Every structure is written in structure tokens, then in C-alpha cells.
């Protein structure tokens, strides 16, 4: 105890001062009047009807004049300090750098609260997941929000001529799982396990199967976690019905989402740390399909923090008692988190939450979880091959972001051009394998978009290369036009399942296209026919507005592009016609610079940055569609099971 007292900050502070024994109460001392030292209250304090407290000169604070109460208070303080010291000893004794992991996780948790909307009130009705998780996802980074006094954008702030879709109204009742025909639910679970889960394996197929059976047998007797993952799988899978009936798909998905949210309110859910990670990843997965419902940034950041806290970013020590099933689960959860975190940070131009250099975790097996047992691996289909291939793409995407945006010297022995040539080959090889090495039902449906987006990032203006060559500019035009065409085709076919990705990719591609048309107007008409370029730029606002039926906030991205396209295309068309476009508009140039480099830390010094950016949407509360549970949409069951592969050949014009 004496050792503890010597280490206690208050004790150390006291030892620095000369402790003068005094019984004068604090009030008499402050008023410089005579004190009669009576206990528990002196006569002056008793007459004034105020609390009589002593004064500790060493601690420089008031203390109770009752010796017993004073010692009791000090004992309580010392017990708290002793408990903290014990925790520190346990943390510092953790193996494999766990102390640094806990410290980093704590820092990250604090940082997350600063990044997410600071004005969002915390909801006390969600015992496990705060209101941050269930706030709307963010729009592309350049868009800044300015709200009216009501919290909603004013008509003047919105601008643009495009009519932005409104969120539908909230349903009046919750659906029961027992109301869903078993064959329809089976189809949706099958679709999730065969098409969605292989790319985002946040839970094992075995766990989902067992939970689904438990819920359909008796949802009341199933655990909260079993009900949650079942409802989330059904909510995500229901979106695949958009090709058949978009309205029915959305209302069905929202109905299952409402059931899942009810489970988050259950104070008796008792999620373990690992199940909390799985729940967070499922929320992130759903945010990709419905960005209005959940905050992708906060969910992914929470998952990354948990992975760091658990040490999942490192392989267990050789002497750790970890069986093969647990090891594969660790790897699967970490790499699922990694893929989402890398995509999110790259698209939002934010530093990575997990440093690439500290990752030692190996990829999980491509085999399904049913083939992974404590005594070894057993033959089976390569169910996780698509996920592994996408994680390889995220590593390529991370490398491009680190080199061109964060300006890291990833390969110091290469010149920039040598590195660009090398990674271009690796990206092309990735796309070739994604096209040829997978069965039709296992192909990554967005492989062409991923190829063109990453190729485009190599040739767009970046902090590392703010002035791309003419050849790079022309290459970017080609990739951007293909991106617009691919997303347009996906939306037409009802197969645009992840609008969060679509909006961020489309907005960035449109901005770079506008910058190319603006800054290269003097030579662009001599290199190509500007007709497809003009039509392509105009198509971006149209495709973004189509996407706004899935994520209404995207309508403000469409308006921003439409407003900026008017002066840009006017100047380009005037130059192509041999007319004098007049002096360059510094306001347009400044706005384009803000859109290209929204983060001041990643902005080259090119032009002034003094224009107000257009408004972005942010929802105050989630509103949802009226639900008409017409299960006749499931009559054509065989057609629902195999909505893949995608075919982008039907749209060759704008």
C-alpha cells in the first residue's frame, strides 16, 4: 500500500509541497477570518449555513473536515487507482504486441467519434450499436452539407434541374418471418450463400444455415444473434429481386431490415466480441446495398478497431492454442474487414486504419466452412475464391492510393513510370483471371468496373502526378465512358446491388472527365471526336439520378455534375467549333480543383480554393417504403436462383 501511495499522482503532488498542518476550514482561510476549529463544522460556517470543509495545501483543493470522511474518500480514490494499475499490468503483459494493439484500438475508437457527424445525437435505445451505426452513409468527399434551420437542404441550396427522388414513407407494421413462404425464404437464403456471402464472408455458411433453421422452426426460441443474421441475410438477398420487381425488392428488403433492427434493441442479446464483429460486418454489407440505412464508414471503422483489438491482423504465435477452425475464422473475418476498409478509405481519400506493413495474417482457405475441421481440411468446392480474388484487388487499389495520393515510396527503386507500367500489368492480369478462372455463377460481376476504375486512377490528376500526359488523359476518357456504360446497363437490368460503390465511382469518374474537358479543351478536339465525350459527360448525371432510386442522396451528386457540366461543355464545344471561348472562368477552375482534391492535405498547389462547394444530402432520419408483401413474385423460383452472370453488351450508346 505504501508503494501504491508513492506512485499515486496526488501523493506525488503532495510530496512536492511543504505540508503545513492546519485545521482552519477552507472558508475561513479564504476569507482570512478566525476559525474556532470546531468539528464537524466551525461556528462561522454553521452561522452562515454552509458546508464546512478543510483545505489540503499539498493537493490544493477542499477536503472534508471530518477525518473519517476524508480518509474514506482517499481510500476510494486509492482503490480506483489500484484497479487501474492492475489493468495496466495485465495489458502490458499481453504477448505479441497486444499492448500496442489495445492502445491503437483505443485511439482509433476516439478518432471514430470525431470523424462521424458530431451533431448526431446518441440514441440510448440501442444498447449494443449506437445511432452512429444507423445513420446514413456519406456522399463522395467533395460535397459539403449546409442545412436550413429545419435540418433539411433548402431549394436554393439544392440547385440543378433534376428532380431528386424522395424517400418513401415508413411501413405501418413489422413483417413476421412465419408469414414468408418457406420456399421463397429458401431461395433468398440460397441466393445469399451462393452469390453474396462468397464475396463478403462475414459469417460462416454453417452458422447461417443453423440460424436460419432455428428461426424458421421457432423464431421466439432462437437467440437474438441467430435472428439478426437470418434477417440480415434475407434483407441483403431480397435486393437481388430488383431485376424482377424493383418496388417489391426494396419493400421486402426494408421489411427484413426492420426485423433485424429490432434485434439490436434487445438488451438481453449478450453479443460476444466476435459476434459483435460479425454483426458489424453484416451492417456494413447492408450499408453497401442501402446506404440510407446504415453508416458504412462507422461500421467498417468499428470492425477494424475490433480486429486490431483482437490481434486478427497478425497470425497467432506458433505456441498459441488455436485450432484450425478458429484460425480460419480469424483470417476470414480479418480479410473481410480489410477489403471493406481499404475500399472505403480509398474512395473517401482517407488514411488507412490498418498499416499494410504490420499485417501478417494469411488468406483463409478457399474451401467452404463445412470442409474446415479441427483435424484438417477436406476436399470441396472453392466457395471463397471470389473473396480472395477481390482482396487481391483491394491490395492493388491500396497500392495505387498509397503511391499516387498519399505519395508513399512503396517501391523506391522504381521510377513513377516504371511503377505505373508494372501495376498496369498486374491489374490487367487480375481482370483476366477474374474473367477466365471462375465458373459463370462465381464470376465477380463488377470486374469490368473495377478494372476501368483502377486504370483510370493511374491516369487521372493526383497529388503525385498533378499534370498527366495527353496520352493519360485520352486513356482516362476511355475508362470513364466504359464505367458509365457498365453502371447504366446494371441499373437497366436491375442488377445494381451496391449503390454506395456506384455513386462514389461514378462521381469521381465524372469529375475527372469534366476536368479533362475543361483543362484540355485547347487540344482535345484535335485528338478525337468530342461528340462521345460530350454525350458521355452528360450521361453521368443521368446515371447518378437513376442510382438515386436506390440511394436518394445520390440525386445531389447528379445535380452537382449537371451544374458543373454546363460551363465546361460550353467551353469545349466552342473551342471545337473554332470559336473564342473567352477568358477562363476562375470559379469553375477552382471548383474543379476542389472536386479533384477535396482533402487539403492531398491538394497540389494549382489554383485558388475559394468557392463554396454545392450541397450534399444528409438524412435526419430513415424513412422507408410501404410494404406490400405479395409473395407471388417468387412463383418463378428457378429464375430467381441464378440471376448471374452479368451481360453489359446491350448498351452501346448514351
TrEMBL record:
Molecular functions per Gene Ontology: DNA-binding transcription factor activity, RNA polymerase II-specific; sequence-specific DNA binding; zinc ion binding
GO cellular component: nucleus
Pfam families found in the cross-reference section: Fungal_trans, Zn_clus
Keywords of this entry: DNA-binding, Metal-binding, Nucleus, Transcription, Transcription regulation, Zinc
Superkingdom in the source lineage: Eukaryota
Subcellular location: Nucleus
Positions of transmembrane segments: none
SUPFAM superfamilies for the chain: Zn2/Cys6 DNA-binding domain
A biological-process GO annotation: DNA-templated transcription
Domain Zn(2)-C6 fungal-type: 24-52
Classification via PROSITE patterns: ZN2_CY6_FUNGAL_1, ZN2_CY6_FUNGAL_2
Name used for this protein in its record: Zn(2)-C6 fungal-type domain-containing protein
UniProt source species: Cladophialophora immunda
Amino acid at each position: 500500500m505504501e508503494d501504491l501511495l508513492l506512485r499515486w499522482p496526488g501523493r506525488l503532488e503532495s510530496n512536492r509541497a511543504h505540508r503545513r498542518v492546519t485545521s482552519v476550514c477552507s472558508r475561513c482561510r479564504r476569507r482570512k477570518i478566525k476559525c474556532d476549529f470546531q468539528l464537524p463544522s466551525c461556528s462561522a460556517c454553521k452561522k452562515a449555513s454552509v458546508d464546512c470543509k478543510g483545505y489540503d495545501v499539498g493537493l490544493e483543493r477542499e477536503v472534508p473536515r471530518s477525518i473519517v470522511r476524508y480518509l474514506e474518500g482517499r481510500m476510494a480514490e486509492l482503490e480506483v487507482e489500484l484497479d487501474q494499475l492492475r489493468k495496466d499490468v495485465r495489458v502490458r503483459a499481453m504477448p505479441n504486441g497486444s499492448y500496442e494493439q489495445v492502445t491503437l484500438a483505443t485511439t482509433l475508437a476516439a478518432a471514430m467519434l470525431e470523424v462521424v457527424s458530431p451533431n448526431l445525437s446518441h440514441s440510448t435505445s440501442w444498447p449494443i450499436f449506437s445511432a452512429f451505426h444507423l445513420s446514413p452513409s456519406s456522399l463522395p468527399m467533395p460535397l459539403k452539407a449546409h442545412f436550413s434551420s429545419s435540418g433539411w437542404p433548402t431549394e436554393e441550396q439544392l440547385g440543378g434541374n433534376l428532380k431528386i427522388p424522395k424517400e418513401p414513407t415508413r411501413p405501418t407494421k413489422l413483417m413476421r418471418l412465419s408469414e414468408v413462404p418457406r420456399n421463397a425464404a429458401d431461395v433468398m437464403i440460397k441466393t445469399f450463400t451462393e452469390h453474396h456471402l462468397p464475396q463478403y464472408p462475414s459469417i460462416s455458411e454453417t452458422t447461417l444455415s443453423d440460424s436460419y433453421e432455428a428461426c424458421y422452426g421457432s423464431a421466439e426460441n432462437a437467440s437474438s444473434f441467430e435472428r439478426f443474421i437470418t434477417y440480415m441475410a434475407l434483407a441483403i438477398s431480397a435486393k437481388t429481386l430488383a431485376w424482377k420487381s424493383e418496388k417489391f425488392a426494396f419493400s421486402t428488403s426494408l421489411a427484413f431490415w426492420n426485423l433485424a433492427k429490432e434485434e439490436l434493441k434487445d438488451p438481453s442479446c449478450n453479443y460476444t466480441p466476435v459476434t459483435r464483429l460479425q454483426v458489424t460486418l453484416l451492417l456494413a454489407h447492408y450499408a453497401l446495398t442501402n446506404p440510407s440505412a446504415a453508416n458504412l464508414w462507422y461500421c467498417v471503422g468499428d470492425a477494424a478497431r475490433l480486429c486490431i483489438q483482437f490481434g486478427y491482423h497478425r497470425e497467432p504465435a506458433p505456441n498459441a492454442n488455436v485450432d484450425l477452425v478458429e484460425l480460419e475464422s480469424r483470417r476470414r473475418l480479418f480479410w473481410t474487414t480489410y477489403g471493406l476498409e481499404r475500399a472505403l478509405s480509398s474512395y473517401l481519400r482517407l488514411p488507412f486504419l490498418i498499416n499494410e506493413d504490420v499485417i501478417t495474417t494469411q488468406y483463409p482457405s478457399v474451401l467452404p466452412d463445412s470442409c474446415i475441421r479441427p483435424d484438417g481440411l477436406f476436399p470441396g468446392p472453392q466457395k471463397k475464391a471470389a473473396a480472395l480474388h477481390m482482396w487481391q484487388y483491394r491490395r492493388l487499389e491500396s497500392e495505387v492510393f498509397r503511391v499516387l495520393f498519399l505519395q508513399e515510396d512503396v517501391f523506391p527503386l522504381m521510377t513513377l513510370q516504371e511503377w505505373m507500367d508494372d501495376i498496369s500489368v498486374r491489374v490487367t492480369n487480375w481482370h483476366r483471371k477474374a474473367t477466365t478462372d471462375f465458373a459463370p455463377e462465381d464470376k465477380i460481376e463488377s470486374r469490368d468496373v473495377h478494372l476501368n476504375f483502377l486504370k483510370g486512377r493511374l491516369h487521372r490528376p493526383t497529388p503525385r502526378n498533378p499534370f498527366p500526359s495527353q496520352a493519360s488523359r485520352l486513356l482516362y476518357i476511355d475508362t470513364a465512358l466504359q464505367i458509365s456504360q457498365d453502371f447504366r446497363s446494371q441499373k437497366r437490368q436491375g442488377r445494381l446491388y451496391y449503390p454506395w460503390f456506384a455513386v462514389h465511382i461514378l462521381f469521381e469518374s465524372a469529375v475527372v472527365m469534366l476536368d479533362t474537358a475543361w483543362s484540355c479543351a485547347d487540344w482535345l478536339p484535335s485528338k478525337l471526336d468530342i461528340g462521345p465525350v460530350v454525350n458521355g459527360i452528360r450521361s453521368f448525371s443521368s446515371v447518378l439520378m437513376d442510382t438515386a432510386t436506390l440511394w436518394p442522396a445520390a440525386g445531389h451528386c447528379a445535380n452537382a455534375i449537371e451544374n458543373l457540366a454546363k460551363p465546361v461543355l460550353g467551353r469545349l464545344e466552342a473551342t471545337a467549333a473554332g470559336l473564342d471561348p473567352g477568358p477562363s472562368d476562375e470559379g469553375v477552375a477552382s471548383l474543379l480543383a476542389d472536386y479533384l482534391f477535396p482533402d487539403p492535405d492531398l491538394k497540389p498547389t494549382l489554383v485558388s480554393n475559394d468557392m463554396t462547394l454545392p450541397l450534399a444530402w444528409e438524412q435526419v432520419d430513415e424513412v422507408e417504403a410501404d410494404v406490400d408483401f405479395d409473395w407471388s413474385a417468387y412463383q418463378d423460383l428457378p429464375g430467381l436462383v441464378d440471376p448471374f452472370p452479368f451481360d453489359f453488351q446491350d448498351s452501346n450508346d448514351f
